[in-house]
Amino acid sequence: MNYWLIFLTGLTTGGLTCLALQGGLLASTLVNTSGKVARIRGISLFLIAKLIVYTIVGFILGYLGKVFAFTPQTLGFLNIFIALFMLGVAFEALKLHPIFRYFLIQPPKFLRRLIFRQEENKGDFSALALGIFTVLIPCGTTQAILALAVSGGNPIQGALTLFFFVLGTIPIFFALAYLATQLGENYKKFFARFVAVVLILLSIYTLSNGLRLLGINFTIKKPVQTENSIVVGDMQKVEIKLTNRGYLPSQIKIKQNVPVELTVLANGATTCIRVFVIPKLNYQEIVPDTEPLKFTFTPKEKGTIPFTCSMGMYHGEFIVE
User: Fold this and answer.
1) How many CA atoms lie within 13 A of 168 on its CB side?
2) 206 and 305 within one domain
3) Do 146 and 267 sit in the same domain of this protein?
4) What is the spatial distance between Cα 154 and Cα 96, in angstroms, rounded to a whole number?
5) pTM, full prediction
6) Domain span at residue 142?
7) Considering its fold, how many domains does the chain have in total?
8) Structural contact between residues 162 and 55, judged by C-beta atoms closer than 8 angstroms
């Protein structure tokens, strides 16, 4: 698992999308707090609580992923659900229709009443409580990372995945959350529109990932390298190397009705690309560090057989001729 990449995801898109859902609630708890020091303390308590609770959730999800095996199809439908959810949040930010307000998940009413009834240290308590309960208000990017923690099937890896993601969201979340408490209404409306556009782009990306996991090759980007299989006797041999940027090669031409001996090499890759998935063949295996992954199949029909990682982020295809 590439935790640096996960941290960068939090640092960029994660911070913006989380702020879109959670920033308004945080700002509302700080609106009556006077002084810069008090507001900075409130935001800091919110982020610390959020970091701790998501790390715990990551551990639990990693354990669940170890106990329950999630198929590529399950993760594909999960990604599609996440994409539609993000799209609904974006449409609510743009105020396209009142129905989209139901996409803004909030803690239960009794928890909101508990938070806002506190009189002593109201801002600090509210910020700390909301930081804990943000697990009930996950943004679209966070939901994708939660799915990644599940797919890893390792409690420690799941905890670290969520820890580094939330850690990455902290700088931009802190800066923009503080700024949001200072902005006038016109700037807040502009910021909401900007975040809505980011969410729409992310929803398209997440939707494409989900479709790939279902065996539908939905992509605009062309494969970076095409190679032909090597026929040896009555078998055609194919070798794929993994990298942290994708598959080498990412497009392979193979012959119909000739058995394929596929060899996949980890090649030092550390991201979710290590989980090699061929949705149409219902095949999913983790590529070992020390030895190649081998798999044999026979293509029965002409066309394409997509392959991808466990999250649909990296992709390639076999072209059956």
Assistant:
1) 24
2) no
3) no
4) 41
5) 0.59
6) 3-213
7) 2
8) yes
